[in-house]
Amino acid sequence: MIRGAQQTDWQDIMDIYAIARAFMKQAGNPTQWGDGYPKQPLLEQDIARQQLYVAEDAGALTAVFMFFQGPEPTYGEIDGAWLRDTPYWAIHRVASRGEAHGLTGEIFRWCMDRCGHLRIDTHADNKPMQRAIEKFGFVYCGIIKAHDGTPRLAFEKIEQA
Questions:
Q1: What dihedral do alpha carbons 134, 137, 142, 146 form, nearest 10°?
Q2: Could you tell me which of 116, 151, 120 has the C-alpha nearest to residue 133?
């Protein structure tokens, strides 16, 4: 089940992001989130804007992600080209406890069911996320610059009618 995150989820959300940062480092991606991203004020803002979501199984939180209707400011300029210049939703900060196989695909499917046009980006060193993105059928569109100015691989998926 996926639902909006609540303040009562706070400790689980922070635990999941800590697990994800450790996994990223172990998988050869130590710089994308470093030691403290995402920070508490950013996550509190996401909750207040009703843009942070959690996945739960049998009452236990298993994943967290940010999902919102664009435009995403960092997607305004791309070294490449988006598939379509129509309204879209963006997904960021996908993280899980790493205990459930296929959970990222379930999150992507849940998002696509709600919007039909989705964009996502990830660090070049984030090979596990790249595999999940490609497995779900996203199309590589080019390079964007994250808020901190670092490059990210940008992908898009549009539901076929």
A1: -70
A2: 120
What does each C-alpha distance from 31 to 112, 150, 153 come to in angstroms? 28, 10, 15
Q: How far apart are CA 46 and CA 28, in angstroms?
A: 28
Q: State the Cα–Cα distance between residues 154 and 21, nearest whole angstrom.
A: 21
Contact predicate 83/158, CB 8 Å:
yes
Q: In angstroms, rounded to a whole number, what is the distance separating the alpha carbons of residues 161 and 154?
A: 23
Crossing angle of helices 103-115 and 127-136, in 10° steps, is 50
Query: Which 8-state DSSP code applies to residue 147?
Result: T
Residues 27-36 have pLDDT tens digits of 999 999 988 8
In this predicted model, what pLDDT tens digit does every residue of 42-63 receive, in sequence order?
A: 999 999 999 999 999 998 999 9
- 53 neighbors 82 (Cβ within 8 angstroms): no
Count Cβ atoms below 10 Å from residue 1 Cβ, excluding itself.
10
Ramachandran class of 59: left when φ > 0, alpha when ψ lies in -120 to 50, beta otherwise: left
